[in-house]
Write a structure and sequence with these properties.
single chain, mainly alpha, two-stranded parallel sheet
Length: about 110
């Protein structure tokens, strides 16, 4: 619930009051009636997969952009296994890997 309380309001049209998101998507780990009622009390519809149901329920079919980028990071050998002891060096390689992924994606989309 602290995470849901920290969600910033979604901006609407100019001059309109800000509002909370309409839905929250979560995985099976949050499938409990306690969480569903707490989220509904805040005026948000929970979309949570039920435990014990098939995985073809439709949830999880969309892969978010950041998940795609994180899935591509193991392409870089230095990021697959962390060899660096210092955090700043590993973070620099992470930034370089993200920059290369973004550059490749922009290069593909600019050719279209």
């Amino acid at each position: 619930m602290p995470l849901i309380g920290a969600i910033p309001p979604v901006h609407g049209r100019r001059g309109r009051p800000r509002q909370r998101p309409e839905r929250i998507y979560a995985d099976r780990g949050y499938d409990h009636d306690k969480y569903r009622t707490q989220v509904r009390a805040k005026g948000i519809t929970p979309v949570i997969a039920r435990r014990g149901t098939e995985h073809g329920s439709g949830l999880g079919t969309h892969r978010w952009v950041i998940e795609q980028a994180i899935a591509l990071l193991p392409w870089f050998r230095r990021l697959r296994i962390r060899w660096e002891i210092r955090d700043d060096i590993h973070e620099a390689f992470l930034a370089l890997g993200c920059a290369v992924i973004c550059w490749r994606r922009l290069k593909i989309h600019s050719l279209c």
